[in-house]
Amino acid sequence: MKIIVCGGDGFCGWPISLHLSARGHEVVIVDTLVRRAADRELGVDSLTPIRALDERLAAWRAVSGRSIPWHAIDLAHAYDDLLALLVRERPDAVVHLAEQRAAPYSMKSPRHKRYTVDNNVNATHNLLCAVVESGIDSHVVHIGTMGVYGYGSGGGTMIPEGYLAVEVPTADGQGRIEREILHPTDPGSIYHMTKCLDQQLFYYYNKNDKLRVTDLHQGVVWGTNTAETRLDDRLINRFDYDGDYGTVLNRFLMQAAVGHPLTVHGSGGQTRAFIHIQDTVRCLSLALENPPQRGERVRILNQMTETHRVIDLARMVSAMTGADIQHLDNPRNEASRNELPAVARSLISLGLEPTHLQEGLLEEVIGVARAYAHRCDKSRIPCTSKWTTS
Amino acid sequence: MKIIVCGGDGFCGWPISLHLSARGHEVVIVDTLVRRAADRELGVDSLTPIRALDERLAAWRAVSGRSIPWHAIDLAHAYDDLLALLVRERPDAVVHLAEQRAAPYSMKSPRHKRYTVDNNVNATHNLLCAVVESGIDSHVVHIGTMGVYGYGSGGGTMIPEGYLAVEVPTADGQGRIEREILHPTDPGSIYHMTKCLDQQLFYYYNKNDKLRVTDLHQGVVWGTNTAETRLDDRLINRFDYDGDYGTVLNRFLMQAAVGHPLTVHGSGGQTRAFIHIQDTVRCLSLALENPPQRGERVRILNQMTETHRVIDLARMVSAMTGADIQHLDNPRNEASRNELPAVARSLISLGLEPTHLQEGLLEEVIGVARAYAHRCDKSRIPCTSKWTTS
């Protein structure tokens, strides 16, 4: 298959691109390196020494013998270039990761809120519009988040894979009718809200133009490297530990490595879904190699392998490393504790064999967090974004 | 109250601004005259001879003794100007009509799709973001459309006012739990889709920042003038009859007046909700004068007074005028017939006394459509937008 990976320089996009290339697919990366610009804006850097994209791609060519061309096209604002690329390349699939992906970053200021909405909505819409205009039957694969449904205090319902069977009253008030609807959303940040808007965009273009779309609702990604990024130091993947882009488990690992207490926001009773980066790349190839038929509704899969409470993760890392646990005020506007019962059968049924936390965690602590601890700027650990002004 | 009307030069915005001013409110108009630019782009003009906004405002000052200042701020792209205006004026309420409002226009081409998404999403988000940043507790009143729920073939459920009580299975699969959710959407065009995105934006800002929002889901507006726009020829309201911006009933009236057959797309079995422009302006003042409390969820009201099948409207106008009825292929991707049972009790309970079609139709035929028939360009009657390429 020929596959365009939009956002192919990012934390998920880079190992996905290499994995697809290693599997023999013809990969083209689209990326404006905007994630690296955000690092400079925030005064932070990946804990791991990631190389310039040109250097990464040259290393991959040297290691694998395979070329990955790269185009710096801004999906949200360079529609004509995007359309020309689609028409020229005629991809079988487009992986869409060209979105601002951090909830805390999206809440930093009005400017960050507005950037996140403008970028994410226009990037998604331009891609869908361009696929229709190109006349090419490309399969669009997007990574969304399980967070679109919110993290309420629970209530005992199961999170299905995208669609929910409900019963609604009839017009005459006498009976009830079964309906299958897109699962209602309840986003907890501007970032999460843009993923809810994406869901509407996919639904519409699938219905009106029969676009083939797979939307992977991903849990929190942990881990750093994959089989391909381990092949050469110059292929190393990004590891974010700062208060904006760092995800909870990677932040704990790095904090443990540098002797900083593990910072738990609030009670730690928040339950989240997790997936290792190696499983992310496998899920992508499974989704791409098992595309929906034309005319099939949007395929929504929960891309996660286990769920944990934040405090349990902190205790696990603490037990492994001896780090202290520190409770801080939670800057997020969310329930202090929640359950997260979720269905995630589809990717397993396609052949995913999950990497579990208990197996991979120690390697991350030793191989990555401790190995690069000298590169950590401790002043960037605190999370400074506030969800509300009050 | 001090009320900013964004989109105050448009078909709904102009009579709303005058009505609120006549009721003693302090009105400020924000409008970049983009609707007039669309007329020039399409080579069409209002059937009625609307005056330049400056001239309209001078006439209103002469007639009523009341001033309405006007600011040409683009909500979607001039955030700083919008924020400065809010901080300076400290409005009690903001009426948000600054959106591209025609489904056929939104489907004309990829450029029109992209303009509609970019403009409508960024305009709404910038407004909500600016109200939060300003720190002012302004009530945001938006006009959406009943079309967000789609016009499927029916199915016997009632359209409630925004929220739907459903039953969902429990996590253990043993029972069912009642939930109240935002009514699921099923948009039939890019325009309608942007109104679904608006709904998500309102939901989020109401939840996270306690913004007070009223979202009026309006039916198809018919009629031209209101008590205030009739006071002086220079205050006359817009009447669109072209294939992009003309709404179904006004198009029939004008077609009858110029001896053109009434153009029914498809079978005419499509049921739509209707409201007279005089009732639109009354609904707005009722919504503004009965605002939600801080902390109250988004108030969603169905703003309509009656429902009709398109073919029945054509027969009504035909009986009144002798015009022929012509069935054309339907360019829209929609069910050929549908029911539309809907609840619209809230605005009636606030005091709305509806203008019914049977009462107001003849005045429109004689007083507007025939009076200005000489200004009609018949070549602009056909609807040229196509919903799909196939």
Describe the protein.
Two copies of one chain form a homodimer. By secondary structure, chain A is α/β, with parallel strands linked by helices. Chain A has one domain (2-380): NAD(P)-binding Rossmann-like Domain (Rossmann fold). Chain A is built from twelve helices and 14 strands. The first copy, chain A, has helices spanning 13-22, 34-42, 53-64, 79-89, 103-106, 110-134, 190-209, 248-258, 277-289, 310-321, 346-349, 357-370, and strands at residues 2-6, 26-30, 70-71, 93-96, 139-145, 163-169, 176-182, 213-218, 220-222, 262-265, 271-276, 299-303, 306-309, 325-328. Chain A has a seven-stranded parallel β-sheet, with helices on both faces. In chain A, a hairpin with a 6-residue loop joins strand 6 (163-169) and strand 7. In chain A, helix 1 (13-22) crosses helix 9 and helix 8 (248-258) crosses helix 12 (357-370). The longest helix of chain A has 25 residues, at 110-134. Chain A is globular, with a radius of gyration of 21 Å. The N and C termini of chain A lie far apart (51 Å). At the A-B interface, helix 6, strand 6, strand 7 and helix 7 of A face helix 6, strand 6, strand 7 and helix 7 of B.
